Every structure is written in C-alpha cells, then in structure tokens.
Amino acid sequence: MSDKVQTINPATEQCLADYTLMTEAEANEAVDNAHHAFLSWKKTSFENRAALLNTLAELMESKADDIVDMMVKEMGKVAAQGYQEVELCAAICRYTAEHGASVLDDENRVYDGGSAIITYQPIGVILGIQPWNFPLYQVIRYSAANVMAGNTTVMKHAKNVFGMARMIQTMYEQAGFPKNVYQSLLIEGKTASALIKHDKVRGVTFTGSDGVGKSVAETAASLAKKTVLELGSNDAFVVLSDADIDTAVEACVKGRIVNNGETCVAAKRFIIVDEVYDEFTSKFTETFKGLKVGDPAADDTDLGPMAREDLRDKLHDQVEKSVENGARLLLGGEVPQTTGWFYPVTILADIKPGMPAYDDELFGPVASFIRAKDDADAMRIANDSRYGLGGGIFTTDKEKAIRLAREEFDTGMVNINGYSLAQPDLPFGGVKDSGYGREHGGFGMREFVNEKTIYIAE
Questions:
Q1: Are residues 442 and 383 located together in one domain of the fold?
Q2: Cα separation of 173 and 251, whole Å?
Q3: Which of 74, 85, 230, 439 is flagged as catalytic?
Q4: First vs last C-alpha separation in the chain
Q5: Could you tell me the CATH number of the domain that includes residue 323?
Q6: Residue 90: domain span
Q7: pLDDT at 2
Q8: Is 347 a domain residue?
Q9: Which residue out of 89, 93, 252, 264 is catalytically annotated?
Q10: What tens digit of pLDDT does each residue of 348-366 get?
C-alpha cells in the first residue's frame, strides 16, 4: 500500500492536499510519547485541565470560519451545519470543564471496620479511531472527556479528513495543552489495529461500522483492554395513529437529511401506522422534492455531495438491491451524471425484511417507508433490527410516548415529537449492534478511569 494519501473535494473531485502516512514505528513512538506525557498530565489539577478546555472552546469559536471551510472542502458538509458542529464542540468543552471536577471527585463511604475512599483515577493512553462525517465533533466528544479525566489520547482520523486531523492537534497545542497530551496520527487502519496491541494503550474508543467495530473490540478484549463502541444504526422513527402529521414530517425530513444523510443517529426507517400512512408519505414526499442538492458552501443548499465516491456507489447499490427485492422507488434513485459525488434525495416504499433498506444502514439521503397495521405493530417493526442507537416516536399523547420510549423502544436514545442529534449534558450511545458505552453528560469522563477503592481501617 502507498504511504501517500490525497484528500479530495467531493463537490469538485479536485485534490486538496497530499499527506504522508506515518509508519508503524512512528505511530508506536507517538504512543510512547503520549505515555510519557501522561505521567505528568495525570497529576495536574482539575482546575488546570478545565481552564485549558475553556481556552480550546474559545479557540474553536475564533477559528470557526477556517474549521467550517475545511469541513466543506474535505467531506462536503453544508456550511451552516458546520458552524453548528463548532458550536456543539465548544459547548462540550465547556460542559466538561464545568462538571469534570464533580463527576470525577472522590467519594467517601464506610464499611464494617473502617472507612473508604473511592477515587476515579486515569489509566493512561486512550486510542481513538474516528470517522469523517463529523470530523471535529467525533474527536472532541471523546478527547475532551479523556483529557479532563487525566488520560492522554492518540487519534486515528479517517484519511479523507486528514486536514481536520492536523487542525485539531494544532488547536489543542495552541490552547496550551502540554505536547503529546493529544495527538492526531496520520495512519491507516492496519496501523491503528496494531496500536491496539501496544502495551501503553490502555483503552480504545471506536466510531464506525459494526463489522470493523466488532473486530476492534475482539482485539482489545483479547488483551483485557476496555472499549467504547458507537457503531451506527438504522434508526426507526415511528408515526403513530394520533400523531400531528405536520410536526412529524418536519422533524423526520430534518432527521433524514442532516449532514447530507450521513449520520449514525439519523432518521432512516419511517414506520407509519396505516391510518395516517397516506397523509404522512404524501407530505413527506412533497417536502423532500423541494430540497436543494448542490454546493455545500452556498447559503440555500440543503444537501451537499456524499463524502466519497465509494460511499455514494455503496448507497446506490443498496437502493438498487432493495428495489430488486420488491421495494418501490417513489423518488430519486439515479446517480446524476455531473461532477461531484452527489446523490439525489430518494424515497423507497414497501420495505420488507431481507432488503438492505430494512436490515442495514443506508448512509445517505434515502428514506424508507414501512406501513404498520397499528401502534403495536409499529413498535414491533421498530425493534426488528440488529441496531439500537436512536429512534423517534410521534404522537399527541406524550405520556404514552414516554412509556413506549422507556419500556419498549430497544435503543440508547429516543426522540419524542422532534429530532435532536446530541447534547453536551445528555448521554449518547446505543445498544445491540450499535455498540456500548456512553459519551457526553459526564458519562464519557468515567469510561476510561480506574474506580479505585482505598480501605482505611479504624
């Protein structure tokens, strides 16, 4: 394999920059450096760590134009959504800074014969393996929590966003973090897999496909190393018989096209009760038709290109295979003959098990309509998936929605009568093939720590 990587603008197909991959020896040295930094970083105060995170938040906000420009050029993100990503990352840093000391503070307990201290101690170097679709957020959400906990981090970013990877390391250093507390490693997947076995890597956090994630977890588990996995999903948004259809359509369209449809926690399967099926699908289709696909830097663009040509081709193949297996194409479904890796907004109906649109994750602007007999049937279909990251319920009966979300929806997160991506103060993560572990809301700060018990005899 070549040691050279090019980043390509997905809207123009023009080369942006050339990068040289680190060798495995160089990557191992970076881990050694991270461990050396850890030995002193773990002894810094919460106040010092918090101050640096607040500085990082300010720095990201001051550099928002440059960050968003990089997102637009490297992975085709719509510019307005890029600014939202920067705002979210700054908020994550500030939340972590404000609450880190209390989340990680010692606890005092008593036992028969003495007292005890439970202390949350950092464990060392944490390897992050992150995707391209939220190129700043994916990195900040795990790294901020871990540096606040006293760990150090090395991160393998996706090769199509290496420019962002370098920018993030520069910002950490400009914010005043000691050298090697955070590092972006320009490495390939094979090298990242080898780093899991490095004796100074104490934990691994991975976001990506469930197949690769399970392989990462298997390697780490064989060495008794903890992992946190966020592995995507095929989220079901359920429209019940008493739903406000206009509210449901607005939220579901937003949930399907956010980030060009390339979002793990996007709305993907729309399960509509028969009683309201025609009204919902008609209004959804009309709204979808009105969306503008084009230049991600333009103010009036709703969707930009897909991030890579292979991802566009995979999505189209999933659409075609679904149609071959009986799905009905209501809108889109044809690759445009134009420059850029664009894919049209697409709607599939009559979705059944055995189709990619039912069983797998369609990572792009494709909506799948599934008709349910009644509310109970809709919830059954929603849970008929190997995934369990997020989902949604639309009904005018809020108490019923809360009960269904709490007791029946087998996911890590549930939206009721709306759509939300992620919040700094709320846990984010899934179940089943969508992975395990949580980030945000303080939960991420305790994922890679040693809950150490200190016994003190009377």
A1: no
A2: 39
A3: 230
A4: 63
A5: 3.40.309.10
A6: 4-232+433-457
A7: 67
A8: yes
A9: 264
A10: 999 999 999 999 999 999 9
